[in-house]
Design goal:
This protein is an alpha/beta fold. It has 20 helices and 18 strands. β1 and β2 form a beta hairpin.
């Protein structure tokens, strides 16, 4: 359990948050909610121990492991992917070395009855038990499963980490954190650099994880699928809801209405009091009452209301000339980067008014195809644009294409025409540019700010084909809602390269899947595609299992082929599995006894405030849970080996 108690963060007189307190329980799934700049990332840094608050405390149990993934990182590693990820198992590697050293010493000793020899055996038993509890025997398989789940191919494992882009380096860090199996995950925008397949894999991992999870994300579907509790940071305070993100939105709306009613009542009271003071300020007979009212005003705790939600802002793309019926037509299109073939003789047809999604793992050619349509890359085959097609393109590096000499307001003022000119400040505010921010030069904006400004600029350009490459990466929920509504109302054609399922849902009616250098067309929305893909994967798995069974030789053939050495190896594995099951059973028995003793002690009144005893109880409880899981998997392995042996006998 992690306790955050009366936390205050003060930046030069500005309080980011004040006297914030809450608990993170062992199996919590918490979404940290709030506008950009509210202090979400700062709070994660404080809980992780990387930053000190101005005042307040963060307390956690001794030996409590935290896995923290920041939004941005500096990389200095020079290892290959496998070596880097194996750092997550530093303790297992050390135990492996110690066990090997002890075994070597035992092999050289002959004083079998001596006390030191028996102590050596005890040490070996303790180290082996710890090694098995930590999953030492199967850590290589865990590494492979995790890396593949996050989108790496087997051939990537031996590549140097320096060869990968920032997004892929972030995946390597995420893999290390997942494999360390900490008591709590603190994840800051973990899906920003993941594709749909990897996001779904990460969701499944986090849903079944035994520890706590606290995450910041602008991916609504990801939050809804994982979190069961939402903590909002707003105006320096926190609001704790036992609800997923979507339910939290409903509850927050109710809270804001209550705030607004209380605010109006208070304002009326303040106004009446001020009128009384003004009216009788100079009448001696009323001086006591006036002074009393002045003191009342000074004591009033002013109610603050959350800022207005601009998501209701109605923005439409300007009208553009009508294009031909076929907007993009590709026949046998191929693209290679040197020896690397990315797309191989693919066909694609996009018609006027269609809204389509390009999905698939990173590196499968989605952005490459978008850039080829833009004529930014050379290719083989035929790829044509239809009649009168005017393209608006939002690239992942769109921010770099802005004019540094203009201010935020000037950048938008130069492209805005018609009625929208009266709403420029509202539109900028909806994308988190308000107050003095609109007068900042583009040259001093952060990467995220430049990206948002480029998106606003695109919203005002008269085009009939929009190509958007990961447009939601730097947008908050409100900005995404505005963009989604504008795209839904857009009468032209839209190509979206995106991994944001909630953003694509209800927006696209066709999905192009990029896979194995080919493109497959799927009619229907994003969730229909994902469900269909899941069913296809299940069918493929069943076919593979059936094929393996068919290909397996009969018992007689197996017996004939098994050599003496192979039988010997099976017998060795069987003995090891039997010993492992016995060790786990012994460990479970000891831990259950220890838990029983602690339960009796905790029931005594004199121990009711003994915090260390409660910590010890939770530690033993966790070790027992791990031992039970390991016993179960070892028992299954033993039964399989026994079955193999009985078939051979």
């Amino acid at each position: 359990m992690v306790s955050i108690h009366q936390l205050t963060v003060d930046f030069g007189g500005f309080k980011l948050f004040e006297d914030v307190s809450f608990l993170i329980n062992p199996k919590d799934r918490i979404g940290l909610i709030g506008k950009n700049g509210a202090g979400k990332s700062t709070l994660l840094k404080i809980v992780s121990g990387l930053m000190e608050p101005s005042s307040g405390l963060v307390t956690k149990p001794k030996d409590f492991k935290i896995g923290y993934l920041p939004q941005h990182m500096n990389y200095t590693d020079t290892r290959n992917v496998l070596e880097e990820v194996e750092l997550a198992f530093a303790e297992i590697k050390e135990l492996e070395k110690e066990i090997a050293d002890i075994n070597n010493e035992i092999a050289e000793r002959t004083d079998y009855e001596s006390e030191s020899y028996l102590k050596l055996l005890d040490r070996l038993n303790d180290k082996t038990e710890r090694f098995n509890i930590m999953g030492g025997s199967n850590h290589t398989a865990l590494i492979e499963t995790t890396l593949k789940g996050l989108g790496f191919e087997q051939s990537d494992f031996t590549r140097n980490t320096g060869e990968f882009s920032g997004g892929w380096r972030m995946r390597i860090e995420l893999a290390k954190i997942l494999l360390e199996q900490p008591d709590i995950f603190l994840l800051d925008e973990p899906t920003n650099h993941l594709d749909i397949d990897s996001i779904q894999w990460l969701e499944d991992f986090l849903k079944t994880y035994s520890g706590a999870v606290v995450l910041i994300s602008h991916d609504k579907a990801f939050l809804d699928n994982i979190t069961k509790r939402s903590i909002e940071i707003s105006l320096g305070k926190i609001y704790d809801y036992k609800a997923s993100y979507s339910k939290f939105i409903e509850l927050r709306k109710e809270r804001r209405e209550q705030q607004m009613n209380a605010f109006k009542n208070q304002q009326k009271k303040i106004e009446d009091t001020e009128k009384f003071i003004e009216r009788f300020r100079y009448k001696a007979t009323k001086s006591v009452q006036v002074q009393s009212r002045i003191k009342q005003l000074e004591k009033i705790d002013r109610i603050e209301v959350d800022e207005f939600d601009n998501a209701a802002l109605n923005i439409r793309f300007p009208a553009a000339p009508r294009s031909g019926n076929v907007v993009v037509k590709g026949d046998e299109v191929s693209k290679s980067y040197g020896d690397l073939l990315v797309l191989n003789e693919v066909d694609i047809t996009i018609e006027r008014g269609e809204k389509v999604a390009f999905v698939g793992r990173n590196g499968e050619g989605k952005t490459t195809m978008a850039r080829m349509i833009m004529s930014e890359l050379a290719y083989q085959g035929k790829l044509d644009l239809g009649h009168n097609v005017k393209i608006g393109y939002f690239a992942q590096d769109q921010a770099e294409r802005l004019d540094d000499s203009h201010t935020v307001l000037e950048t938008i003022d130069l492209v805005a025409v018609g009625d929208i000119r009266t709403k420029i400040r509202d539109l900028l505010g909806a994308f988190m540019f308000s107050g003095e921010t609109v007068d900042k030069k583009v040259s001093v904006l952060s990467g995220g700010e430049r990206t948002r400004l480029a998106m606003v600029k695109l919203l005002l350009e008269p085009v009939n084909l929009l190509i958007l490459d990961e447009p939601t990466n730097h947008l908050d929920m409100r900005s995404k809602d505005i963009l989604k509504k504008a795209l839904r109302d857009f009468e032209g054609t839209v190509i979206l390269v995106s991994h944001d399922r909630e953003f694509l849902d209800g927006l696209v009616e066709k999905v192009y899947e990029f896979r194995n250098k080919k493109i497959r067309e799927h009619l229907g929305g994003i969730y229909y595609f994902l469900e269909k893909k899941k069913m296809e994967s299940l069918n493929d798995l069943n076919k593979n299992i059936a094929a393996q069974k068919k290909a397996q030789p009969s018992n007689k053939e197996t017996k004939a082929k098994l050599s003496f050495e192979e039988r010997k190896e099976l017998s060795k594995k069987l003995k090891k599995a039997e010993r492992l099951v016995k060790d786990y059973e012994s460990s479970i028995s000891n831990l259950e006894s220890e838990l029983e003793k602690l339960t009796e002690l905790m029931a005594m009144p004199e121990n009711s405030s003994d915090e260390q005893m409660f910590k010890d109880y939770h530690k033993v409880e966790k070790e027992l849970e791990t031992s039970m899981e390991n016993w179960e998997s070892s028992q299954l392995e033993l039964e399989e080996l026994q079955q193999q042996k009985s078939e051979l006998d």
